[in-house]
Predict the structure.
Amino acid sequence: MAKENSNKGYLSGKEIRAIAKSNAKEMKRLEAYKNRRCPESEFLSQMADDDNILEIQDLHTFFFTEQGVVKAVNGVSYDVPKNSVVGVVGESGCGKSVTSMSVMRLIQGPTGQIVDGSIRFKSNEYVLDGKGQPIPDGDGGYRMEEKVYDIAKMPMREIHRIRGKQVAMIFQEPMTSLNPVFTIGQQLDEVTLLHMPGATKQIAKEKSEDMLRLVGIIPENVYNAFPHELSGGMRQRVMIAMALAAEPRLIIADEPTTALDVTIQAQILDLLQDIKNKIDGSILLITHDLGVIAEMADYVVVMYAGKVIEKGTVLEIFQDPRHPYTIGLQKSKPTMTLDDDTELYNIPGNVPNPIDMPSHCYFKERCSMCTKKCSGEYPGMVQVSPTHFVACHLYDEETAHG
Ligand SMILES: Nc1ncnc2c1ncn2[C@@H]1O[C@H](COP(=O)(O)OP(=O)(O)OP(=O)(O)O)[C@@H](O)[C@H]1O
Ligand code: SF4
Ligand SMILES: [Mg+2]
């Protein structure tokens, strides 16, 4: 791995060459690992807790840049329990999207790489015969089996087993995910034709129409339309319908409403809330908006500079925040009761340079509660309740938890 640069504010020619050499070696090794052929046993795993659908453990995702190694995700661990909504919050650039893109294995190589950690996912899939065909269960359906994959260890050629089918993603800007040359109906039908064994065109069309109705769209108005003929809010509804069509166990929604105006945002959030109760799956919701998290999430993960600094149930994080950063975030949230001339609280200072992280707490330079201990080692995760964890030296006397 590249040496940290000498903290002079610029890199010498020698340092640039050393970074390039070490990056090239590391990227080559990791690309070969991603593209390897291997038996399934190499990427099968076990859940630590059977009630979870996703367990991210000690995930490290780095970008090997000319300036040095950007540790975008630097030892992140959190779980998504079955049938729950987990909200991920944190300042811009803290690694929320890079974590979720790692789950989908959409990190762009060779620069971006998962370098360490596990992403355990419990999939439910068809049992296939020797010819790769699903086996009927004698009851009108097909035989299914649960398998736990470590997505971080899966070769890229196997990712089709989970991407789109078991884990679907709703992006901020739907136009980038919809194909402009096909109608909404064609794109929706394709999801069913691809993922449902024995589906005919007629079955796929019926399913597409059901999905459109589920997201509040009258199918007759939209099925034959092209993406550019729809408004932003409608396109986002179509994206949600597409994500649902494959009946995934996990939906990742990364800032699903940021590109929409306020009234449409509220409608899309109502829709996600409604869907949460209808689907047999979980939602990982990434957003800057604490209000959205308070309304939608069962659990909250707070990230800062590539790490999880606090996690717990929504009540714990909102009513009993422990980390000085989470406390600051709550204060910086706009409320209806603020007078027009009341200034919003702003957490002073900046996030440290991701290429040159300190060895002490990353929040130290911005923290108003820091003590002598905070100049020492980076704080470990401390458990303050069965479901509430915080990485801050203020709680070191409570039960340390790895
Ligand atoms: N292709 C890339 N090359 C280098 N660095 C990258 C790349 N993509 C992301 N990063 C860095 O990774 C870090 C985490 O980015 P990420 O997109 O996950 O942030 P985020 O928490 O989703 O922020 P936002 O709230 O703005 O969406 C940032 O420091 C970013 O600069
Ligand atoms: S460890 Fe220290 S510097 Fe870091 S957040 Fe806690 S009190 Fe502040
Ligand atoms: Mg993001």
Residues 321-395 form one domain.
